[in-house]
């Protein structure tokens, strides 16, 4: 491989698994992990790692030059719950990180960029079921506002400067290697830890709040899939679906494996965020454009999570 890949935010929930998968495909030495903090042992040990502060453009430039990076996956973001608590910090980090990378790509330093969007771009006025790719997009959260602005900036840099940037609107992501932090969909990971440790869980969302979700392996395949696809004529941030469930439906699926598991509900401010998001999304554009297809269903995901966590906690 003559061009190398940089993952910024490699210690996070998606970054960790993305690094490992990309190293499997492209070779350990061709995939550079970077973050402001140390990550998972496997990530740190299996290939190059750089401490990197995404807000420092000169440091990013140095890492790009040192490793002759041509592709960047920018996996840094302050998620929905933390963003509501710190709007300015979230806006600055979510936007400045993107600007730094888009500017370096505009100057030709980087050839291809992945930037993650989210179902949070949708808002209370958006159709909730099978939410179309193009629809009413008026987010009501700080995080959603930053993701929508980010999509618009990616489109602008693509149109005006020819930057090759690719995006997915991730649903809630479920994984066991690294925990998520500060998201509204985090309950769907926390519940597994509590199911194993205490056989009970108190959920911060209402029992019937349905949200689109996805197992991490599918999210990683989609992320790499959209980067490997031929370039589209214009920038698109793709809707991506796998399965949707409510806390009650997830608890029922866990009870099939752990019959004594119980759940109760104490909705807090996170419920206000969740109720503005879609219940399911129409991902036919991703299916048609680059062959997206989810492989893991709800029951398989539950079994894999329980097995995976059984060995780690
Ligand atoms: C969050 O809950 O904030 C994230 C997301 C849906 O982007 N997981």
Question: How confident overall, as mean pLDDT?
Answer: 97
CATH superfamily of the largest domain: NAD(P)-binding Rossmann-like Domain
Dominant shape? globular
- Please provide the ordered H/E string of secondary-structure elements: EHEHEHEHHEEHEEHEEHEEHEHHH
What share of residues is helical? Answer: 40-55%
Alpha-beta classification: alpha/beta
* Biggest sheet statistics: 8 strands, parallel
Residue runs with pLDDT of under 50 for 5 or more positions: none
Calculate the terminal CA-CA distance, rounded to whole Å.
Answer: 38 Å
Number of helices: 12
CATH fold-level topology of the largest domain: Rossmann fold
How would you explain this protein's 3D organization?
By secondary structure, this protein is an alpha/beta fold. It has two domains: 4-172 and 214-239, NAD(P)-binding Rossmann-like Domain (Rossmann fold, 3-Layer(aba) Sandwich); 176-212 and 243-310, UDP-galactose 4-epimerase, domain 1 (Alpha-Beta Complex), CATH 3.90.25. 45% of the residues lie in helices and 17% in strands. It is built from twelve helices and 13 strands. It has helices spanning 13-26, 41-46, 57-67, 80-85, 87-106, 142-161, 187-197, 216-228, 247-257, 269-274, 284-290, 298-312; strands spanning 4-8, 31-35, 49-51, 69-74, 112-114, 117-118, 165-170, 172-174, 200-203, 211-215, 237-239, 243-245, 262-265. Strands 1, 2, 3, 4, 5, 6, 7 and 11 form an eight-stranded parallel beta sheet that branches. The chain has a three-stranded mixed beta sheet with strand order 8-10-12. Helix 2 (41-46) links the parallel strand 2 (31-35) and strand 3. Helix 9 crosses helix 12 (298-312). The chain is globular, with a radius of gyration of 19 Å. The mean pLDDT is 97. 2-amino-3-ketobutyric acid (AKB) is lined by residues 79-80, 118-120, 143, 170, 172, 183-185.
């Amino acid at each position: 491989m003559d061009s190398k890949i940089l993952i910024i935010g490699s210690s996070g929930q998606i970054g960790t698994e993305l690094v490992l998968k990309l190293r499997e495909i492209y070779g350990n030495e061709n995939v550079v992990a970077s973050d402001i903090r140390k990550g998972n042992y496997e990530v740190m040990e299996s290939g190059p790692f750089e401490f990197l502060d995404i807000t420092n453009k000169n440091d990013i430039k140095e890492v790009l030059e040192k490793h002759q990076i041509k592709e960047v996956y920018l996996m840094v973001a302050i998620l929905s719950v933390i963003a509501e608590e710190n709007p300015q910090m979230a806006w600055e980090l979510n936007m400045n990180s993107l600007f730094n990378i888009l500017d370096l790509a505009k100057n030709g330093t980087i050839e291809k960029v992945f930037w993650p969007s989210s179902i949070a771009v949708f808002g209370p006025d958006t159709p909730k079921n099978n939410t179309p790719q193009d629809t009413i997009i008026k987010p009501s959260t700080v995080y959603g506002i930053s993701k929508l602005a980010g999509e618009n900036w990616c489109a602008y840099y693509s149109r005006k400067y020819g930057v090759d940037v690719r995006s997915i609107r991730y649903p809630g992501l479920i994984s066991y290697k690294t925990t998520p932090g500060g998201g509204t969909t985090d309950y769907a990971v926390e519940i597994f830890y509590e199911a194993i440790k205490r056989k009970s869980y108190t959920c911060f969302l209402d029992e019937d709040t349905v949200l689109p979700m996805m197992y991490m392996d599918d999210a990683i395949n989609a992320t790499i899939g959209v980067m490997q696809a031929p370039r589209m004529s214009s920038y698109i941030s793709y809707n991506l679906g796998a399965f949707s469930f409510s806390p009650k439906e997830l608890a029922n699926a866990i009870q099939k494996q752990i019959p004594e598991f119980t759940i109760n509900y104490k909705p807090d401010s996170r419920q206000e965020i969740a109720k503005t998001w879609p219940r399911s999304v129409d991902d036919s554009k991703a299916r048609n454009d680059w062959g997206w297809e989810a492989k893991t269903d709800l029951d398989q995901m539950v079994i894999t999570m329980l097995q995976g966590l059984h060995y780690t906690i």
